[in-house]
Design brief:
It is a single chain. By secondary structure, this protein is of the alpha/beta class. It folds into 2 domains: about 140 residues, Lyase, Ornithine Decarboxylase, Chain A, domain 1, CATH 2.40.37.10; about 260 residues, Alanine racemase (TIM Barrel, Alpha-Beta Barrel). The protein is about 30% helix and about 25% strand. Strands 4, 14, 15, 16, 17, 18, 19, 20 and 21 form a 9-stranded mixed beta sheet that branches. An 8-stranded parallel beta barrel has the order 5-6-7-8-9-11-12-13, surrounded by 4 helices. β14 and β15 form a beta hairpin. α5 packs across α6. The structure holds pyridoxal-5'-phosphate. Pyridoxal-5'-phosphate binds next to α11.
Length: about 425
């Protein structure tokens, strides 16, 4: 569920009128609902409670300090993909020993930092990476806890840029080679400690079947590794999809009722628990998008409109530098006026100010005929939204706000122009 709804004609997040936030701090601004995040997290944990299951929130989905701190307060761990994300977790009050570290390109300084901080496990993606961690751990006189990401060869039926579990992409080690690799680790890499096995088949999966297929394929390997190496965990990755199209129009409950084929936390848990429970091993899940995606709307202001021969354009003050999902992988976001309209729907392209044809948030979209000056809410912007933002076109990073009931708090003030150029200098000055 999420906490964005019209009340008396004004779009609210929990008890806060979004127009009030825009009036005080301007746009573009990302507004997060604390209630949505904490309730969805509770639903996750409750649904998986028959297992020894642990949530490792995927930091890259949304890495604001206050959001990470909210996760810390809920006692979850973190799945990180860089030394920078580990630093962020620690800076937000998180515990490094609850961090798993994924990614295909870990550098030596990152590996040293993670070892110094005593992370829970490196989730490794290639034999050469394992040899590098072994070498560094040896030099430091420690044992590095590792798991390898197994690639189970399952088609996740998601966009090609966010599918990761087939043998045609850069992630993981093929399931046909994983047993041989673990034997090599055990025989040749004395500074590594085999702690688990990991997989992650893709992002924004809207069906349960690929998860079930992957678990069924890999479970026999897990059984073997429990016997051979005494592994203590199996991380089954993240990837649980959210609702991007339809969630506000009819209300999310109604939407779910009409789309029984779309993945839910409960459906996901019910399908995988019978497969995982008999293994008797700790299960880690790494949701990112599912915990923060629907929990945020980005506020933006309509600047101009242009009615051409073929198309109507609405120019807004948010660009692909603020949310790149539509440009990068055809991401879809609902866009609603914060003051409700009635019966004036038109078809338009919603485009940003960036000098790129790919800078659109919606194309050929049926939308309220909003006028310049009106504030819009781009929904489901909480995952891979702000965390992918840049200052392209020298546009300051947007502000971020956390709503808690009737109150709202700035959790990132809008960047200043000075801050954009911080660190730049003329030759010889730096
Ligand atoms: C990105 C990522 C996740 C999170 O994916 P979501 O689709 O946001 O749930 C989990 N695990 C790994 C290894 C990742 O790279």
């Amino acid at each position: 569920m999420h906490s964005f709804a019209y009340k008396n004609g004004s779009l609210h997040c929990e008890g806060v009128n979004l127009a009030d936030i825009a009036a005080v701090i301007g746009t573009p601004t990302f507004v997060y609902s604390k209630k949505t995040i904490t309730e969805d997290l509770s639903e996750f944990r409750e649904a998986l409670s028959p297992l020894d299951a642990h949530v490792a929130y995927a930091v890259k989905a949304c890495s604001n300090k206050a959001i990470l701190n909210l996760m810390v307060q809920q006692g979850v761990g973190f799945d990180i993909v860089s030394g920078g994300e580990l630093w962020r977790v620690i800076n937000a009050g998180g515990d490094a020993t609850l961090c798993t570290y994924a990614g295909v390109g870990k550098t030596e300084p990152e590996i040293r930092y993670a070892l110094e901080q005593n992370i829970y496990c490196f989730n490794c993606e290639s034999e050469n990476e394992l040899r590098e961690i072994n070498r560094i751990a040896g030099e430091m006189g420690v044992h590095a806890p590792i798991a390898v990401r197994v690639n189970p060869h399952v088609d996740a039926h998601t966009h090609k840029y966010i599918t990761t579990g087939t043998n045609e992409n850069k992630f993981g080690v093929d399931i046909t080679r994983i047993e041989e690799l673990y034997a090599t680790i055990a025989a040749e890499m004395p500074h590594l400690r085999i702690r688990g096995l990991q997989m992650h088949i893709g992002s924004q999966l809207t069906e349960i079947r690929p998860f079930v297929e992957a678990i069924e394929k890999v479970a026999p390997v897990v059984r073997k590794f429990i016997d051979l190496y005494g592994i203590e965990f199996w991380s089954i990755g993240g990837g649980i999809g959210i609702v991007y199209d339809g969630c506000l129009a009819s209300g999310l409950s109604a939407w779910w009722a009409e789309h029984p084929e779309h993945i839910t936390i409960r459906g996901y848990a019910d399908a995988i628990i019978p497969l995982l429970k008999p293994l008797g091993i700790k299960i880690i899940v790494e949701p990112g998008r599912r915990l923060t995606g629907n929990a945020c709307a980005m506020l933006t202001t309509c600047l101009y409109e242009k009615r051409g021969e073929a198309k109507t354009f609405k120019m807004i003050d948010a660009g692909m530098n603020d949310i790149i999902r539509p440009a990068l992988y055809e991401g879809y976001h609902e866009i609603w006026p914060v003051t409700e309209h009635r019966d004036d729907t038109i078809v338009a392209d919603i485009v940003g100010p960036i000098c790129e044809s790919g800078d659109f948030q919606a194309q050929n979209r049926a939308i309220a005929d909003v006028k310049p000056g009106e504030v819009l809410a781009e929904m489901s912007a909480g995952a891979y939204g702000f965390s992918m933002a840049s200052t392209y076109n020298s546009r300051p990073l947007a502000a971020e706000v956390l709503v808690d009931g009737e109150k709202w708090h700035i959790i990132r003030r809008r960047q200043t122009l000075e801050e954009i150029v911080t660190g730049e200098c003329l030759p010889g000055e730096c």
